[in-house]
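Final report, Chapter 2: Outcomes

The project's central promise was a pipeline that accepts a single protein chain and returns its three-dimensional structure in a standardized token representation, suitable for archiving and comparison. That pipeline is now operational. To close this chapter, we reproduce one record exactly as it appears in the project archive, with the input sequence first and the structure output second.
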Amino acid sequence: MGGTEPERDPIAYQRGFGHHFATEALAGALPAQNSPQRCPYGLYPEQISGTSFTAPRASNRRTWLYRIRPAAVHGPFRRIDGGRLTSDFSGPETPPAPLRWNPLPLPDEPTDFIEGLVTIGGHGDPHAQSGCGIHLYAANRSMTARAFYDADGELLIVPQQGRLLLATELGRLLIEPLEVTVIPRGVRFRVELPDGPARGYVCESFGAAFRLPDLGPIGSDGLACQRDFESPLAWYEDREERSELIAKFGGALWSAPLERSPFDVVAWRGNHVPYRYDLRRFNGVGSVSFDHPDPSIGVVLQSPTDTPGVADIDFVIFPPRWLVMEHTFRPPWYHRNVASEFMGLLEGVYEAKAQGFLPGAASLHNCMTGHGPDAATFERALREDTTRPRRLADGLAFMFETRRIIRPTRYALECPLLQRDYLECWQGLGRRFDPGRP
């Protein structure tokens, strides 16, 4: 190892969503504002752009990096095996049936975050920068001497078990279950496991960067607040050692050799940055009169489209909350949506499922596929005293909701995790109609 490293100071953050931040790990490393390419300390200037150069100012994403050596300094790329990670959704026919999977087991063999990614489904195409890939991960070792970046899309990582320490080019992020992180397109990172084995979910958005939803009639408060998002302070490694750079590009994995640490950004300025958010900070809203409201009141982040009001992906949560609706049916109603819903459970139980949906599990209800409370939940809801409020405090579920059909991979349709008897949970919903009893 050559060179020096900064002292391992506690991980620190700066607050705000979409802000243009300026941060330096070495005093004076940021150039003067009017000379962004004249760098102190012999650093190289480099810009990473996450949007088209001419994107509107409010949505333009870019960051100036001041680093020890440019990102272009690496060996030739070669194609490598992607394992169970894919962006090819043209495999088996997609059935119009509800699907559910048991949690992904933790690996027996040494497996890092990249090796532990398993694609469940998706739609669209990274070449067209539209659509998404939905993955699970299960890992039991930290990434060592290797780094990863995704040129195909932005990564929303949702831990379910075990903390993740993400070392990125722009600093470090520590996230635990009930927190999420977003790694922008192209930003290099590695994943360390401070607590050992870890498991969770990943949404890879091929389209526009995630943003906060408009609040509309909700007003200026509610849902996720800008101040609660956190981005890292600059932090760098100055290491001369052999390592590997892995890129996801065009749906495939590629590997190139490095002779240094890629995390050598001493200072940076911009808004194309990784960030984290604590889901427990979400300010939920709901019905105070009757009926279960639409899941749009639970949107944390969304990847917008060119059609106003239509997102490519919504990241929705169902947090702890009070149910106070009277003279009504409190659980979600039976429904068929034009949107497709991939759901996961982070802890506890989900209100509309009596059994079979465990933390770490997943379900998929595609476009116009009928679903809703299982038979046991329906019967319990009919007996509920709706003159009394009820606190839902023993679980947190989430949903990746998208405007297009999510196409399961061959692995997802054939693996032993698939609950092939999932349909049975509704078969106990017998005939209740009696024309002689209003």
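Archive annotation: The longest helix spans residues 375-382.
This record, like all others produced under the grant, will remain available to the consortium after the project formally closes.
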